[in-house]
Amino acid sequence: MCLAIPMQLTAIDGPQGVVDTGGVSCDIRLDLVETPRVGDYVLVHAGYAITVLDEAEAVETLALLTELGVMDPESPE
Amino acid sequence: MSDVLEPFRDPGRLRGLTHRLCNLTPSKPIAFMHVCGTHENAIGRFGIRSLVPRWLRVIAGPGCPVCVCPPAEIDAAARLSLDHGVILATFGDMVRVPGRISLAEARARGADVRVVRGVHDAVRLAERHPDRQVVMFAVGFETTACTTAAAVAARPPDNFTLLLAHRLIPPALHALMELPDLRLDGFLLPGHATTVTGTADYEAFAAATNLPAAVAGFEPVDILLGLERLATLAVHGRVEVTNAYARAVRPAGNPRAIGITDKVFEPTDAPWRGLGVIPGSGLSLREPYRQLDALDRFGVTLDPDLPESFPGCECGRVMVGLVEPEDCPLFDNACTPSSPRGGCMVSLEGTCHSRFVYREVRND
Ligand code: SF4
Question: What pLDDT, on a 0 to 100 scale, did the predictor assign at position B170?
């Protein structure tokens, strides 16, 4: 029920948007997000974007894991 | 963010996080509860319980909005569809939840029950069928309630109404703390509900209960990161709320979604399967929007005499973490996903369903 999937916004038309995930596109509503932009990744739940994902935070979380000694994919075991 | 999911499923990072978790040395066994069906599904699917050390127990709480919905609300939906000839729109999971009769059974008797992706699709149905009444049976936590509010604020057509069964998570956490037999050391908080609400209510909850909490996302790295941070707090006796899902959750949440929800709804007391009536844990329409209430429009009332569950179904106690699905005598016996006896076995987010499908094995 609270499943929300990250999808990329490919078009905006007022409160309506189009998102794409892995080549599948669908219409969503944008009533709940401020100033979405084409290219943003949004979390989509029940047909509505509920937030715009913060790419910088995603990168930072992954960098922090590497810093903490939590291995990244390339490092040898 | 060329690939948004892959780095959060990476085996190397999972190994590293498991290693850090296993290096902690608590003085006694620790139990954390999550309150999100999507967490339970992901934990089962990715085998997270087999990765965590033996001293750490991860308990599923009342996190499935379909499962906490008591039979009286299902029954009202069935009566609306059968006795009043409405088009009843709802999420797919709701159709098979047992009640006096399920919506699937109502459909078999001729009711017009439609599965929709969300409330907006139900509004579109009302626009396409101006000669019919369309009722959206709206369930879900804060994540879904804001979408219902957005549809109301966007002025749906007159033939559209709502059967509201939304629930709020923080009041349920307070109710859980009143259960005498439940011993917890922290909460893994639901990433998508907090995307909407932010963390303020949970900061207050942590302070009031003296328990740490961690917001976590839904990929395996997200969940293990949340558990590792939470365990670190618990082992060091620190009470705070940490955000392990920063790419989606901001401390203030989504102010636009909060604003729309507050404009349309006010809190009301609501019953939860397994927890009884919890003050302020449901939502009702504020005065300017009351004409959208389906119960009022069709003169239907919730039947107070319906039992909470079927005889023998342990859903209520499974839902609050007091027993495991396997402890229910009906599990994988009289109750399976193809023939469910309780909501917990129907929904993809139900604890019994996840346990049945993923057959988790611990690494003991
Ligand atoms: S296994 Fe079935 S009957 Fe038992 S608690 Fe779960 S849903 Fe209820």
Answer: 93
Q: B68-166+260-298: what CATH class? A: alpha beta
> In this model, does residue B362 exceed pLDDT 60?
no
- Is B98 part of the contact surface with chain A (CB cutoff 8 Å)? no
Domain boundaries, chain B: 68-166+260-298
- Looking at CATH, the fold of the domain delimited by A5-67 is given as SH3 type barrels. (2.30.30)
Work out which ligand 1 atom sits closest to the CA atom of B356: 1
Q: For B247, which of A61, A68, A69 is closest by C-beta distance?
A: A61
Distance from the Cα of B16 to chain A's closest Cα (Å) equals: 4
User: pLDDT confidence of A3, banded at 50, 70, 90?
Assistant: low
Strand-pair partners of A49:
A44
Please judge whether B260 and A32 are an interchain contact, meaning their C-beta atoms are less than 8 angstroms apart: yes
Give the Cα separation of B58 and B49 in Å (integer): 7
Tell me if B314 sits within 8 A of B328, measured CB to CB.
yes
A29: chain B residues, CB-CB within 8 Å: 120, 147, 150
Give the model's pLDDT for residue A70: 66
Q: Mean pLDDT, to the nearest integer, of B100-115?
A: 95
pTM of the predicted structure, to 2 decimals = 0.92
Q: What digits encode the pLDDT tens for the residues B51-103?
A: 999 999 999 999 888 888 888 999 999 999 999 999 999 999 899 888 888 99
Asked if A70 and B139 come within 8 Å (Cβ–Cβ), the reply is no
Cβ-nearest to A54 among B147, B247, B349: B247
Rounded Cα distance, B198 and B305, in Å: 37
Burial of A61 (0-12, 13-18, 19+ CB in 10 A): buried
Q: In a mutagenesis test of the B interface, which of A70, A74, A75, A77 is the best target, namely the one with the most B β-carbons within 10 Å?
A: A70
Q: What is the pLDDT of residues B52-64, one digit of tens each?
A: 999 999 999 998 8
CA atoms within 13 A on the CB side of B210: 3
| Beta bridge partner(s), residue B214 | B188, B242
